[in-house]
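Exercise 7. Predict the joint structure of the components listed below.
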Amino acid sequence: MTTESPIQRIRILDPVGLIEPEEVPTVPLPLVAPPRREPIRRLQGATLGVLTNVFRGYDVPGAVAERLAQQFGMEVVRFEKPLISRTAKPEIIGELAEKADVVIVGLAA
Amino acid sequence: MSTSTRTAPPADWLDFDDFDAAIEHCYASGWTDGLPILLPTEKRVRQILDAVPRDPLEVVGIVPPGRGIATVEKIAINAAMAGCLPQHFPVVLAAVEAMLEPIFNLNGVQATTHMCSPLVVVSGPAVRELDFNAGGNTFGGGSRANAGVGRAVRLVMWNVGGGKPGINDKATFGSPAKFAYCIAENPDTCPWEPLHVERGIAATDSAVTVFACESPHNISDYQNDTPAGVLGVIADALSTASNNVMDHGGEVLVALGQEHARIVASQGLSRADARRLLWELARRPLGDLFRVRRGLLREWPDWIDKNDLGTRVPVVDDPANITLTVAGGPGPHSVCCPGWGHYGGFAVSRKIQLT
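Solution:
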């Protein structure tokens, strides 16, 4: 049996990309922060926001929203992304947060 | 020399006394896609970085969907892990830069349930100079250049972009192309100027063309000896009613084998002529499409009469949506690679900055 040769210390570099929070687009904050809204406890009469994927003929979020609106008397505000595979602009997210009490989001393609 | 002024911190490092422990750490940390990697040692990474006159801390871009910062150094680390030699690194950089073009929509390519993976097609003098395999098994194994560049691109998507199964990569099936997907256009058998010339890059330069697509589908044809005959067989495979692009729109890639390429060019057809003829042939009657689906998800070309079930719908809207290259070894075969759809992954060409 041969004698193993001594191994020098091995230094390896980290291949993972650093993530900086500034790179994640967020809704611009207004100069005066809006009052924090408490989460709703009942759907009855609430405003339902829908962000759909615009997947033609496959509008599951929209169909779900219709049923909920009928069942609970909810007002619906709809937003569409121009392409299903691109993230929604921060402005759309901001409007949803402002206008809707609860939100349905469509994902995936 | 880079004109970018944005830099990011250097990579962290870890020290090990034991080679096997270092390897297992890479696996345990999720740094590898399941296949083995070369340890990204300082020496190996430094040798790769020295191949380009760029600041290692220069930010090349932000890789979605995880939004990791891709510095030249981070890309070099992943290229080292993939087994790239220093001379391969300019190709890797060009491919990453091409994928980060907004029109490519790497975010969607990474995250989609579709199996698409970015295919890197190398063309120009670099094919010979860097020993890429453009002949037999160009899509397969045996070439350090093909495998190294292809895997480096995937590891950047994996480690810098966070495109991992179950986390951000939602592909229903995935494919072997998600390990390494790089071929080269064959300079010995291509009857036309290099692929990148019609995309605005000089013939004397080398380039990558990156296109997100499915794994290659083989078309064998032993019988036809005319351009329309050969392209007609390929067109039939390209334009099935259930083809992803027929439903979702977007682009396709066709790689002509050398025997088919010789026939296609035999009557003086240029690459553009061949693409146009292929586009005219790769069509399906509307009635066939509605036989398998209630409706299609693509944006219809304006001239389609949806009330005429005999209308022959082209698989892509325009000949420019077909990337046509020549690759592979002897044999009466060609391949087609459907793209992801009108959502992105479109073919983007970028010059390789060889030093």
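Discussion. Residues 144-160 of chain B form the longest helix (17 residues).
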